[in-house]
Specification:
0% strand; 5 helices; mainly alpha; 163 residues
């Protein structure tokens, strides 16, 4: 069927080109050019389709990673992990097996992966600035070598000497 269809197309094309006044050699060259263009168009369409499939896969992976990050952030906050440390924690977590075939995030697997990393790096849980009694110091320690007021501190910064 394809051969007969191709022969019919060739004869119709030859008849049209003869009507337009092309010689035998020009006619054969025109047919060859037409077939090449048709073949290139088919290859280009196939390439575009493959590119769209790859782009679709990349977008699905980005969405899945975003969903995993969201779930990880909520679980990490519930565990008492500082929000500033969550992006670093997310980079350490192995993301294999954290979602099912349909792209749904498996909360228990994310929690398990989170706990594995927190066990290996317990510093994620604490903020590192707490004293042994559990209080966090805010502001200066008070040992400023005699500089007490804001004006005195600014003078010290800019090198203004007192009179």
């Amino acid at each position: 069927v394809n051969k007969r269809s191709s022969q019919t197309q060739d004869s119709v094309l030859k008849g049209y080109l003869k009507q337009q006044g092309l010689s035998g050699e020009e006619l054969n060259q025109a047919i060859t050019n037409y077939k090449e263009q048709k073949q290139q168009a088919a290859l280009q369409a196939k390439q575009e389709q493959e590119n769209m499939k790859l782009e679709n896969q990349r977008l699905k992976a980005q969405i899945l990673n975003s969903n995993i990050d969201t779930k990880l952030a909520s679980l990490a906050a519930a565990e008492g992990i500082n929000a500033d440390k969550i992006p670093f924690l997310a980079k350490l977590i192995d993301r294999n097996g954290l979602a099912d075939e349909k792209g749904n995030v498996l909360e228990d697997k994310v929690k398990e992966a989170l706990n594995t990393v927190v066990k290996a790096f317990p510093d994620f849980k604490g903020n590192g600035q707490q004293n042994s009694d559990g209080f966090q110091q805010i502001g200066s320690g008070g040992s400023d070598s005699g500089v007490n007021t804001v004006d005195d501190k600014l003078d010290a910064i800019f090198g203004v000497k007192k009179k």
